[in-house]
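A quick word before the example. In earlier lectures we treated sequence and structure as two separate objects. From today on, think of them as two lines of the same record. Here is Glucokinase written that way.
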Amino acid sequence: MSFSTRSKSFAYPVLVADIGGTNARFALVEGPNTPTRMSGKTATAHHHNIYSAIRKVVMKSADPKPRTAIIAVAGPVTGDRIPLTNADWVIKPLRMISDLGFEEVIVLNDFEAQALALPGYHGEDIEQVGQGVVREESAKFVLGPGTGLGAAAMIYTSKTWIPLPGEGGHVELGPVSKEDIKIWPHIERVGGRLGAEQILSGTGLPRLARGVAAYMNCERQFETAASITKAAEDNDPVAVKTLEVFARGLGRVAGDFALTVLARGGVYLTGGVTPRITRFLTDGGFREAFESKAPHEELMAKIPTFIVRHPDPALEGLASFARSPDAFAVDMQGRQWKAALA
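And the structure line, produced from the sequence above:
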């Protein structure tokens, strides 16, 4: 396996990009000691491909032009053609080099980028939920309910941070409380199972709401996550109960991951759903479920949990890597392309 090596540096300026199914966000890092400079945001649907988006959003105003590109995409990077999961774009790093003049292109997983941001958070970047104290230079975990449920760990060893992306959002999620046990039979299975992402995500929330409505003997037609969070703001009982169950489930899964990597550096919540359900994460249910891990309640009480408030966590993670690549050990095998030498 090939990793970024110590004393490595990138050719600046470095373009960092967070490419999602709906939007593409761009920023520039002009040197190892410079702040991140936002370059723009655009809908993927407004461009035929990433090359067009970079030309129109970045290249028109960037001077000097970026020489390196570090890109985060939702999903695995498995070859020279990288299709987006929820958009028509196919990213071809070698074409980015030939068409846009980059000297080097690196493509990482989006939650790997989220993990790269964790060591640098401070101040208003994060909001703590419940008790616990960060132990420095200790493992961290990021969990993000958005369209799906993203997950990644950040491990510290040998004076180096190592991001570990994965598909942790697909772990099993079963009922625990007496109320859960009554609700779970009403939730639609997917592929014969109920994984965490099938409930704890924007796409999973309507599925959970239908189960809660059946349990409460109520008629509701919630088609989207946004309709549920909006109804909860109006104190609709089904929507409120759905988000209470959601928060408890998220707390249990977050606690499981905290135990898995002994995340004494904290567990961090990101994703599009998280900022819309803050009151359900801070009312005590999430943290109680997080800590209820007998026989390790005392240990769990010491591990802090946070809501990430930084507006562009993936971009900031990529920028941290661009500025200080020697601080991280990032797997480059099959994810790094360079221009051929003349």
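Notice the following. The chain has a mean pLDDT of 93. We will return to this example when we discuss secondary structure assignment.
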